[in-house]
Amino acid sequence: MINRMADSSSAVPEQIDRSGRGARRAASLPEFQDMVRGASEQVQDSPAGKPPAALRFNHVRQQERGLRQPDAPKAVLGAEPASVSSRSSRVADNEATPRSPEVSAAVSSESAASLPQPSAAAAPAGNPFVRSADTTAPHLPRFSEVPEQAKYPFGPYRQAPPESGGDWWFVNPFTGPTPWLALDAAKAPRTAALEAEPIPIGFQEVFGARPQPSDFANRSQYGPTLARWEQDMTYFQQSGIPDGFDETQLEAAATEFEAWGLGRPAFYEGRYGWRVRFPDSQLPTFETTPETALLVPHIVIAQYQVRSIQEGMTPSRYHPWLPERLLPA
Predict the structure, then answer these.
(1) CA gyration radius for the chain?
(2) Does 213 share its domain with 292?
(3) pTM score above 0.70
């Protein structure tokens, strides 16, 4: 019984509190509706559906814009330049504020005038390298005009003296400090060919006269033969009898050589010391040592006939010292 009374007494304040809360809720509902209705009317009255706060902000900005002078920016240490900040603020205002077509056109012309315009002096003048009018030796490039930064000592181009044309030439380690001398050589009149090197005394008696193209049925042999003849003349020193021998030995050996068709021997000192040749024979390029030719001439005769048979020639008579395989059957 006591417990039930306690429960009922504790429930009464809660019910009383709930009823009071409902009365307060009922009383505040009309006020809430009035507040919502007033806010919607304010939104409908504002142009373009913008909130009053944004309108007030734009209005203040427009007033500040009318008071600001375009030629009175003040530089602040550590801040962005005034021209950049004012341009960014104008872009923000232009986006936020609707303009008429006349205002938009005026703003566009003002922005175009504020942009940097290209100057005629800064425009490229084309290629400053002017090719020389001289057509002599076109493989040697030079210029009558080059830019200042390419001229010596700032650049690699040097001007030739007036007697060499006065053009500008490219100078590097490969051309040398005076490349225009090549043009002088090209303009010089052609001179006669250099005279042939004088033939040493006694050289023709050993090696014969200078080879001529008409001496060869096969023209391909002329070049190598002439080169070998000139090389032999370069190393030629003298002709005669080597030291240690006399005229008696020379005549005795020469008699044997002439009897076997080799002709008279010719001794000379050249690249490999003393050597002997037989200029009147069918093999004028055949050589041997002077010691062998003067002391044992028949060995030289047999060697000569072996060489002749290998070259396709037939001796008038075969030497008995020839190998049997080379003798006729």
Answers:
(1) 59
(2) no
(3) no
